[in-house]
Amino acid sequence: MKMVLSGNASAAYGSMLARAEVISAYPITPQTKIVEKIADLIASGEFKTEFVKVESEHSAMAAAISASLVGARTFTATSSQGLMLMHEVLHWASASRTPIVMVNINRAVAPPWSVWADQTDSIAQRDTGWMQFYCESCQEVLDTMLLLYKVAEDKDVMMPAMLSEDAFLLSHTSEIVDIPEQEEVDDFLGKFEPEMILDVENPMSFGSLSMPHQYYYEFRYKMAEAMEVAREKILEVEKEFEKRFGRSYGGLLDLYRCDDAEIVLVAAGSMSSTIRVAVDEMRDKGVNIGLARLRVFRPFPVDEFRKLAKNARIVAVLDRSFCFGYEGAFFTEVKSALYDMDVRPLVKGYVLGIGGRDVTLDVIHEVIEDCQKTKETKDEPFKWIGLKGGEE
Amino acid sequence: MGKKYEIEYKDYRDLPLSPIAKGTTLVFKTGGWRTMRPIIDLEKCKKCGICWKYCPDVSILIVDDYPKVDLEYCKGCGICANECPFDAIVMVEEESQ
Amino acid sequence: MKTTIPEQELMDKGHMACLGCGGALAMRYLLKALGKNSMFAIPACCWAVIPGVFPYSCMEVPLQYVAFEATGAAISGMEAALKAKGKKEGVTVVGWAGDGGTLDIGIQALSGAVERGHDVKYVCYDNEAYMNTGIQRSSATPKGAWTTTTPVGKTKFWKQTNKKNIVEIMVAHDIPYTCTASVAYPEDLIKKAEKMKDIKGPCYMHIYAPCPTGWKYPPEKTIELSRLATETCIFPIYEVTYGKYKLNKNIRDEKKKPVIDYLKTQGRFRNLDEETVQSLQMYVDNEWNKLKKKIECFGEDK
Description:
The complex is a heterotrimer. Chain A is α/β, with parallel strands linked by helices.
């Protein structure tokens, strides 16, 4: 069935199709339409789920963890301040090995107050042990939610996953979305049946103290291992998804016209769509540009970047966030992924779009021009594009 | 340590998914914490049940209808002796090893 | 032997509680009342450590350790999940937290959980300070008490404010059942816990749980001290059922003991001056009179 859905509505339908049994969420702009849509679907009788209208995001995640440990498939959604408020319990979710799926609307972080697109909120969670996906279209949001439940609930993974979509640019814009049939999704996902749950018939204690000499260290290693298993599972499940539903998104690193690209732009989120247009325009002019869309940030696509980098002269990394005291996170991680290569492309960093500053076609062309001008193999580390008073 | 309750994981692969504890604390013989030990005078004891009721360490057993201190676990807090209405319990110093 | 409380034990020996721990006793009694079909959430507090280290636990019911401020949220999630899976019937969901995790950092989640009307039971064992982290003050610490963050010294730097009245805060949330209980009166505690088990909706129980380590008194006095707390009207034993107040342990005026009798048993009150003792007596008298007035106006027979 096809419907015109926004990014937010796609997330709500995704949770319904996945048959999320417990939803605990707190409203925050621009995620509010997700919880409102879910409430509508419950009120109309279409969606049978327990919706806990918690009193804060920290509680939203804490309730989700407990629900998941009882054995329920759980969903939550948030953004910016809410995601950051949850930070403590994001760690709790991954170390408890609860396969919660969360939609995060990438929104700038206060102060100053801003409700517009910015990836700082999710980038700041990269160490929490959550898988991280960045979506470019509403269809991708819905499809990725289904994929994430399947990957996360795999008994060799059992790690939580977050899906990020840009504030307003994706959350509030609409497109025609193909909504899969419920029976097909049921067949694809199956039921969530974890082995060890909170159960009065089999009493156990979840999360006790563990000493330095045993076994805290080992539990963390198991988490690291699970993330590596997730790498394979994501590709496996995506293949299965493509067979069933006819759609695929390029794995961890979504490549567009990169085969013979001299300059490759790396970016995540909605600006990727703009970059695709720029790539086509440049190709029409005979300039070999490509886009490597960072679809999965955790686990980080190291091998995919190394393969890509074999042919490119310049890899331009676009960060819609910044790690103060150093540089953009994507920039750092791409460089470190390529460190071991004998022959490496020049990696250039661009900071843009922070606080919702618009990433237009002109902005992308500015980046491309800057790359074309680069003759040396060493250049200045990174640029903040469009800074008032910055050098042009 | 109580050998029969001991659990050991020599390999990280043997651990459960997350820190999920299935063992019992009966493995910890907290009797070793004691510096004072309760002695119950069964002659004075009226089987009122108060000592059994107030023990925080579940260390007063009911044996042949009388209270009996479980010396493997009793920490020697002295609540039983303090509460006994018939002065049937005294605390004595634990013997040195 | 005469047993006035159920004999079944759902708490194993060998746990890590200090000698004479009021909190350990409180849990032992609660478990006897609620039985094996209970599911617990326990935040950071003494009871996060009392059950022992992984892979051992003294609890014979399922238990999830949760983040400090999250107890109210955790039990909401547990209840929702059990309902979603059709497994809620006959299972009691319990949030068990210390005074810090209830009155301070945990108050938001507690308020949210009971306001939403979840069928959960929240039990606070009150040892009147952050004991697990080494005796720092909480809003449940009584005025005048020594703690490591109110260490008296030479400048009368004891706790300056009176205990936050979380029980009345819970009554103000209009929940089906709120009560206080004490380890000195296990029969009363157990009867109330059994009552909570049968009520569908949020219930709150506040248990007085003395701490020999933090209050500086010899461990054998735990029960004696608890009794004294009620006999001086410092810790009244009462319950509020659907807004109706009932006093469970009435202390007649002629039997009411002065607070100094209570204060002098504990090292944490050792350096109080006359002025503070008097203000404490006035405060206790005032609170006791307020409670008696509430019982008069909103008693069960009204």
